Amino acid sequence: MNQEQLEAVMGLIIHSGNAKSDAMEAITAAKEGNFEQADQQVKQAEEAIVEAHHAQTSMLTNEAQGNAAEITLLTIHSQDHLMTAIAFCDLTKEIIELHKRIASAIT
Questions:
Q1: Active-site residue, 15 included
Q2: Out of 15, 53, 54, 77, which one is annotated catalytic?
């Protein structure tokens, strides 16, 4: 794996991990009733997903140009991280919405 491929793979892992962490912080904020903070954390998670997609697009572009990345456990792990982060962020939005509904029903 060359340096450019390694950077793309690591970008996927880092940005996906950041997205998942931001999403978890959003759930925690929503549980505490801090919906403004929850919404901000979701926004940050979405921005991290965009950055991860940029890294993935770089890998896809290289492959389309005939420079496919070596398939290693690291490349598979990076793609798995992205898919998990996307699913986690989607579920986070639903969890926050549930917390908002519960909070509004109580007040």
A1: no
A2: 77
